[in-house]
Amino acid sequence: MENQIWLITAATGGFGESLAKYALSRGDKVVATSRTMKKLNEKFGGESENFLPFELKFEGDLQAKFKALIEATQKKFGRIDNLVNNAGYGLLGIVEETGEADLRTQFEINVFAPFLLTQAALKLMRPQAIKDGGSEEKVVARIFNLSSIGGFRTSGASTPYCMSKFAVSALSEGLNLELNQFGIRAINVMPTGFRTEFLGESLKTGAGAIKDYNEFRSATIEKFKAYNGKQPGNPATFGPVMFEISRQTMPAQYLFMGSSAFKNAEQKMALVMADMKDTRSIAGEAMDFKDATESAFDKRNK
């Protein structure tokens, strides 16, 4: 089995660290980013034949930073087989209490950053995939977008975060419509309930406070605190699963992770199907022109 090249953002903790270390242990080559080179050196021991650390702060001119990252990756390893958009954080809060600046920052990190990094990486990955003979029937490269079960369904007091992750899920779906022809698969990764820093260092909350929400807010915060550290998901399993997916000939586009994710997805789908059943007779074909043609937007991924 040929070794593969991984580019992983936010690789010094949680999912990113699990994946980077496991991929290296299996003989793959890894480009790993972190906000500080010190953390990368502490976790991985510095640059080596199979490892390239890259300090990356998600601020300032992101396009220039991502261009430099891809150039460094190409110089070191020549290609990217797996791009992992893992960096992000959670802004939890009630819609009415969330400030515009906080929401914009959430989208800068969780949406604009993976969008722009994917654009930069494709400058290398697309010609590479064409050269490798990629097609709809032959996947030769993968883009793993770390969405969340929050990118599939929304939970209480997490709307700002879930909005950003719904956007990431849309990015994955859209990429597949555009990139399947080249054999590049975008995989929408939707975990929940893992013992990472999501409810710790990676969690931010809105600054505003409206007294009518005091009881709801307090109960939600206490629920988060009680759950933190007791989630069922083991982040150490992330690396092996992602590695296995990278070796599949036709990987899934929708990758739920953790028992809670599957349960929540099933509940959401059941609710949607029930609402569709209740409203189809008045809001389906009854609203169509009789001479309509097949929608240009109906094409879905295989």
TrEMBL record:
This is Oxidoreductase, short chain dehydrogenase/reductase family protein. The lineage of its organism: Bacteria, Pseudomonadati, Campylobacterota, Epsilonproteobacteria, Campylobacterales. InterPro entries: NAD(P)-bd_dom_sf (IPR036291), SDR_fam (IPR002347), SDR_oxidoreductase (IPR051911). Keywords: Oxidoreductase. Belongs to the short-chain dehydrogenases/reductases (SDR) family. Transmembrane segments: none annotated. One of its GO terms (molecular function) is oxidoreductase activity. It comes from Campylobacter gracilis RM3268.
